[in-house]
Write a structure and sequence with these properties.
60s Ribosomal Protein L30, Chain: A; RutC-like_sf; five-stranded mixed β-sheet; single chain
Length: about 130
């Protein structure tokens, strides 16, 4: 079983995430590529919440392919194109993640391959063998 790391000697997280996650040696790991807010039929919805939802729905499918789900997440790396997208991203992220909340990093970047994209999400998941 993975373990959330939240030492009392470190300031509490700013949002719903763990400072670290411990993964025992007997776990399989899955690393996803960054997922953009684009559907299988090449639709890019407007707005960070809609795009984030597509990112996490794509991640759900990738995890399922490995026999995993969101309860197996140990790390999320996310990228948004502006501070104004942070709250919308975090709102949707929290709809998909489970407790204990995985370790998480959110960065502001200058852009992605297409102008329409405002968010990209990649994850690491771990599950016992």
């Amino acid at each position: 079983m993975t373990k959330s790391l939240l030492p009392s000697s470190v300031r509490a997280p700013f949002a719903r995430y763990s400072h670290g996650m411990e993964v025992p040696a007997d776990h399989r790991l899955v690393f996803t590529s960054g997922q953009l807010g684009i559907t299988v039929d090449d639709q890019i919805p407007q707005g960070v919440e809609a795009q984030t939802r597509v990112c996490f729905e794509n991640i759900r499918e990738i995890l399922a392919e490995a026999g995993m789900d969101f309860s197996d997440l140990v790390r999320i790396n996310a990228y948004v194109t502006g501070r104004e997208h942070m709250a919308g991203y975090m709102k949707v992220r929290d709809e998909f993640t489970r407790d204990p909340a995985p370790a998480s990093t959110l960065m502001i970047v200058s852009g992605f391959t297409r102008e329409e994209f405002v968010v990209e999400v990649e994850v690491v998941a771990a599950k016992p063998d």
